[in-house]
Specification:
Four copies of one chain form a homotetramer. By secondary structure, chain A is mainly α. Helices cover about 65% and strands about 0% of the residues of chain A. The radius of gyration of chain A is 22 Å and the shape is globular. Chain A binds a DNA duplex through helix 4.
Chain lengths: ~220, ~220, ~220, ~220
DNA sequence: TATGAATGAGTCTTCATTCAT
DNA sequence: TATGAATGAAGACTCATTCAT
C-alpha cells in the first residue's frame, strides 16, 4: 500500500520500465507483421509502432530487417521446440492417446497462435533466406518429424499399429496440421468449406480417426 | 527508300508477330517470379527481363504491379479450371479408382507445375488482396471441393464408403495435396524428410491408402 | 530560319535534349560539391540539384555515391593526363622555358580550376578509398612525376642543370604547385599572406627563379 | 559495510582520478579520428571508444560534434603556438642555421605528428567552419608567417640574404613543409616517389639548399 | 559525472510508374 | 506498340543528440 508521502517513489518511466522487455516486444510485433504481410512487404516502421518504440530503436536491438526476421524465426522456434520436448518427455498410455494429445496440444499452443505463422513465413521466404531455411529444417522440421516418427515406430513395435510407411505417414500428419494452421492464418476459419465451417478440433479429431481407421467400407467386418 | 505500298506487304517482323503473345508471355514470366520471390519482393524489372521486354512494356499491358498480379492469378486460375473440367468430365469405375486418377492428375497438371504456386501465392497474399482471395475461393476452391465432395458422396451412396464426414474428409485430401505442392515449391523434394526422400507419387498413393484403409491394426483387436 | 508554320517542329524537351550529356553534367556537379564539402558531407541531393536532375537520376548513371566519387576522380584524371601528355609531346627550347610553360599551363588548365580540387579530394579521402588512392597514385602521380623527372634529367644531360637530386626536386615542384592549388581552393587568394596578396603567376614565377638559382648550372654560362 | 567516514579516505578510483583528464583524452582521440576520416565521416562513437568513454560522455564535455571539432583545432593550435614560441625564443647564429633548425624542429614537433593533421583538417573544413578557419589563420598562419618573414627580413638586413620577395619566399617554405606533412598523413612515406622513397629529413635539407642557392647572397661571386 | 537506452532527423538507395518518342 | 530515360515516393539504415538514472 503506497503511503501518501511516497509520491517521489514514482514509478519508473515507461522507457526504463520496459527496457529489458524491448527485444521480446519487438520480436512479438515483428512476428505479427511478418505473418500478416510477408517479409518484404512488412515495414519496420509498422513493427516499431506495434512494439511501441521508434523505428530506430528496432535497429538498436537488431542489426537489420533480415536479422530481425531471423531472430523472430529463432525465438519462436525455441518456444516450439520446448513445447515439443515437454510433450515427448511424459508420454504414457496408448499411442493413439499420445497422438491425440500431441496434435491437440500443438494446435492450441502453436497452430492456432501467431507462432503457427512461422511455418507460412518460412515457406514464403525459404528461397530468399536459404541459410535460414536450412536452419529451420535442421532445428524444427527434423526434430519434429523425428519425434513423430519415434512415436509411430513405438506404436508399431508395441503392436498397436500396422507395419506402416513411417516417413509418408509423418508427412501426412504434418501436412494436415500445418495446412490447417496456414489456411486459418490466411483465409480464416469463418469461411464455409464444402458447405460447412471447419472446426479445428473436429478436423484434428477426424484426421486422427482417418489415420487410425480409414474410411473404406470393410464389408465383411461386422464391426461397423 | 521503301515505297509506301510495300510496307504492309512485308512479313510482320518477329516483334510484330509476337505482339499478340506478349501479355501471355508477361503473365507467364510474372508467375515464375511471383512464385519464386513473393509479390512484394518480385521486381517488375526481373519479370520484364524474363519475358524479354522492357520494363515499361509491362505497363503497356498491365496498369500496375497489382493489376499484373491479379491478371496472373486469374489467368492461372482459368488454367486450373480447365484442368479441373477435364478431370471431372468422364469418371467411370470405382470411387477409389476415380480418386486415384483425380489426385494423380492434379499433381501432374497443377501441383508439380508453376500453376501450383498459385495456391502458395494466394495464401501469402490473401490478406493483401482480399477481393482476389474471394475470387480464388469462389473460382477454384469451391469448384474443387464441390467436385471432391460429389465424388465422395457418390461413393457413400454406392456403398463404397462409410457414412463419413464429407467436408472434413475433403479438407484432409486438399491439405495433403496442397501441402505437398507448397512444400516442393518451397523446399524442393531433394531434401530428406524423416530420413528418406519424399516421392510425390508414393506419397499420394500412401495418402489414398491411408484414406481407404487406415493404419490401425485390426487383427487381434476385437473391434471396439 | 524557322518558318512560322514550323511550330510543331518543337525543340526536343529539356529532358531529351540533354540525355547524352547527363553523366558528364552529374560528374561536373559532383566535382564541385565534393570539393566544396568533402565526400562524406556532400549530399547526393545537392549534386543532383546542381546537375538539374532528380536525385534518383544520379543512381541511373552511377551505382552508388562511392561509384560516383570514383567516376569523378577518373573522369577528371583523364583530362589531366591528356593535358600532361600534350605538354610533354611538343617541347622545344631550353629546359627552363619548358618548365615555365608546363607549370603555368598546369596552373591555368588544372590548378586554378575545379579539377585542381581533385588533389585535395584525394588527400582527404585517401584512407577511406585506399583502392582509389592507389589508382590515383598509379594513374596521376606516377605519370606526372615521371614527366617532370624526365624533363629534369634531360636538362642535366644537356648541361643546362646541375647534377641534382631529382626525386626531391620533383617533390619540391609538386609541393609548391599542389599546395598553391589546395590553398586557393580552401582559403582563397584574396586573403593577405605575410601582409600582401599571393598572386599565382608571381608565386609560380618566383618558385621557378628559386629553383633555377639553385639548380641551374653556373659553369660556362656567363651569369646573366 | 563501509563506515561513513572511511568513504572519503579511499584513494580516488581510477575513474575519478582520471576525471580531470577526460576532456583532454577526448580531444586527443578526436584529433586522431578527425585526421583519419575527415570531420563528416568521423563518428562520435569511434572517438568515444578510442577515448575509453561512452558516447554520451563526449556530450557531457562538448556541446556538439561541431563544438568538439572546434575544441580540437583550438587545443591543438595552442600546442602549435607553444612549439612556435619555443622555437622563436632564442635564435642565435646565422640565418641559415636558424632556418635549418626551425624547419627541422617544426617537422619533428608538428609535421610528423597528429598535430600536423590540423593543417589538413583546416584545409578540408575551411569552408564549412569559416569562423574556425579565420581563427586558424589568425592564430597559426599569421604568427608562423610573421615569424618566418621576420627571420628572412633580419637575414636581408644583416646582408646574409639577397633583397628577396619575402611573402612569396615564405609561401614557398610553408608550401613544401605543409605539403610534406599532408602527403605523409594521407599516403604515407613508404610509397615510392619518382622511383625512390621520400625521406623528410633529406627533403627538408634539399629544400633548404635549394632555397639558399637561390636567395643566399653570393658576395664574392661577381655574377650578381 | 557517466552512461545505457532511445530517438528524430536525416541520407542513400530502390523501384513502380510516367513520359516523350 | 515499345522503350530508354527520368522521377516521386517510399523504405532501410545511420548517427548525433537527448534523457533518466
Amino acid at each position: 500500500m503506497s503511503t501518501p508521502t511516497s509520491v517521489n517513489q514514482q514509478r519508473p518511466t515507461r522507457r526504463v520500465r520496459r527496457k529489458a522487455a524491448r527485444p521480446q516486444e519487438i520480436v512479438d510485433a515483428a512476428l505479427q507483421v511478418f505473418v500478416a504481410k510477408g517479409f518484404a512487404a512488412a515495414r519496420v516502421d509498422e513493427i516499431a509502432q506495434l512494439a511501441g518504440v521508434a523505428k530506430a530503436t528496432v535497429f538498436v536491438y537488431f542489426e537489420s530487417k533480415d536479422a530481425l526476421f531471423k531472430a523472430v524465426v529463432r525465438a519462436k522456434i525455441v518456444d516450439q521446440l520446448t513445447s515439443f520436448k515437454a510433450q515427448a518427455a511424459s508420454h504414457v498410455g496408448s499411442t493413439r492417446e499420445l497422438i491425440v494429445m500431441a496434435l491437440n496440444d500443438w494446435w492450441v499452443r502453436i497452430g492456432a497462435t501467431d507462432a503457427g505463422g512461422i511455418s507460412k513465413l518460412m515457406m514464403q521466404e525459404a528461397k530468399n533466406f536459404p541459410e535460414l531455411a536450412a536452419f529451420y529444417q535442421a532445428e524444427v522440421m527434423v526434430p519434429a518429424t523425428t519425434l513423430m516418427s519415434d512415436i509411430l515406430r513405438r506404436g508399431v513395435q508395441r503392436g498397436e499399429l500396422n507395419d506402416i510407411d513411417i516417413p509418408n505417414t509423418v508427412m501426412s500428419i504434418m501436412a494436415s496440421l500445418l495446412f490447417l494452421s496456414m489456411w486459418s492464418q490466411s483465409y480464416g476459419l469463418d469461411r464455409p468449406f464444402c458447405g460447412s465451417l471447419i472446426s479445428p478440433d473436429v478436423f484434428i479429431d477426424h484426421q486422427i480417426n482417418l489415420l487410425f481407421s480409414g474410411i473404406e467400407s470393410k464389408g465383411s467386418v461386422p464391426c461397423a
